[in-house]
């Protein structure tokens, strides 16, 4: 488990991370999401104390890192793997040599280091490229080497700081597949730092939204989706503003679906039961944390809007009124 308690970090009096508290359960894939400058990378570096917070405590696997001296901290960091956006690989070493680098401080034999490096390269799908030069690899393959290196010391936590932002969509998805497999097969806690909501949607069990160094929302995605007014939900399922041309006497609503509600014939039943023309203005449906979920925006005639909204809420659906009745 990772626990941050009221952590803050300032640079020149300006807060980069401001009074952040987070609890990340063991074995979860957790996303820290926010725009550039929100403080995400600083927060990632605080988790393994590459940056010491000005205030607050950091605890990983029941060890309070902020209470450790430098020697103890170096040992504790061996349990926290780090994957970087820019790969940070050494061109002077082979692929296998880069992975072995992480093991050289452990003092094992050369044969043991080689065997462990090969094991990790096999895990990330590069077992056949151990003797290759780094320059011979694609960006996605280099990122896999970085992941293998991070896993070599048998960490319990894997931090990924914008590790897919420089990759094309197809390569990004293959790397995210690898993270999911690592989480499932090795039981690692994975912390993904990203500005991309697609990364959160495809990979994370839980997430926190960071703005100007502060956590403005956090939780398990299946719970967040069901939370009225959720900022994360609106970014996970962006529908934009109400389009022009909607009649002034019409009511516009957003319906948020999650779990078993996502495949119900809700709209067809509304039109039938209320004898009304219901127009779909937009829809986004995704699979999030293993659950089908999404949002649909409807235009409903004003004279039946109150009854339609009551009907939908009685079904346990989350309704937000954007225009018209109860707006």
Automatic annotation (TrEMBL):
PROSITE patterns: ABC_TRANSPORTER_1, ABC_TRANSPORTER_2. The keyword Membrane applies. Gene3D superfamilies: 3.30.70.260, P-loop containing nucleotide triphosphate hydrolases. GO terms for molecular function: ATP binding. Keywords: Amino-acid transport, ATP-binding, Cell membrane, Membrane, Nucleotide-binding, Translocase, Transport. Transmembrane segments: none annotated. Residues 2-237 form the ABC transporter domain. InterPro entries: AAA+_ATPase, ABC_transporter-like_ATP-bd, ABC_transporter-like_CS, ACT-like_dom_sf, MetN_ABC_transporter-like, NIL_domain, P-loop_NTPase. This is ATP-binding cassette domain-containing protein. The lineage of its organism: Bacteria, Bacillati, Actinomycetota, Actinomycetes, Micrococcales.
């Amino acid at each position: 488990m990772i626990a941050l308690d009221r952590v803050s970090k300032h640079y020149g009096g300006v807060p980069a991370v401001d009074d952040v508290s987070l609890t990340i359960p063991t074995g979860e894939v957790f996303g820290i999401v926010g725009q550039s400058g929100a403080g995400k990378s600083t927060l990632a570096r605080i988790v393994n104390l590459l940056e010491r917070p000005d205030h607050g405590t950091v605890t990983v696997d029941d060890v309070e890192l902020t209470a450790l001296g430098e020697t103890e901290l170096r040992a504790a960091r061996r349990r926290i793997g780090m994957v970087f956006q820019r790969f940070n690989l050494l061109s002077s070493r082979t692929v296998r040599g880069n992975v072995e680098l992480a093991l050289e401080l452990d003092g094992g034999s050369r044969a043991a280091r080689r065997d462990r490096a090969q094991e990790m390269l096999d895990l990330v799908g590069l077992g056949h490229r151990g003797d290759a030069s780094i320059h011979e690899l694609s960006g996605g393959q280099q990122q896999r080497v970085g992941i293998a290196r991070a896993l070599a010391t048998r960490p319990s936590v894997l931090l990924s700081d914008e590790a897919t932002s420089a990759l094309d969509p197809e390569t990004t998805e293959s790397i995210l597949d690898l993270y999911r497999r690592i989480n499932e097969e090795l039981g690692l806690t994975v912390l993904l730092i990203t500005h991309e909501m697609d990364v959160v949607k495809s990979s994370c069990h839980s997430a926190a939204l960071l703005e100007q160094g502060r956590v403005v929302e956090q939780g398990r995605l299946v719970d967040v989706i069901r939370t009225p007014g959720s900022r994360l939900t609106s970014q996970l399922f962006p529908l934009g503003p109400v389009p022009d041309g909607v009649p002034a006497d019409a009511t516009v609503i957003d319906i948020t679906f999650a779990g078993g509600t996502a495949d119900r014939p809700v709209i067809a039943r509304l039109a039938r039961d209320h004898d009304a023309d219901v127009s779909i203005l937009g829809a986004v449906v995704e699979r999030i944390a293993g659950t089908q979920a999404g949002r649909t925006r409807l235009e409903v005639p004003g004279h039946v809007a109150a009854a339609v909204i009551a009907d939908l809420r009685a079904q346990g659906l989350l309704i937000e009124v954007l225009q018209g009745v109860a707006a």
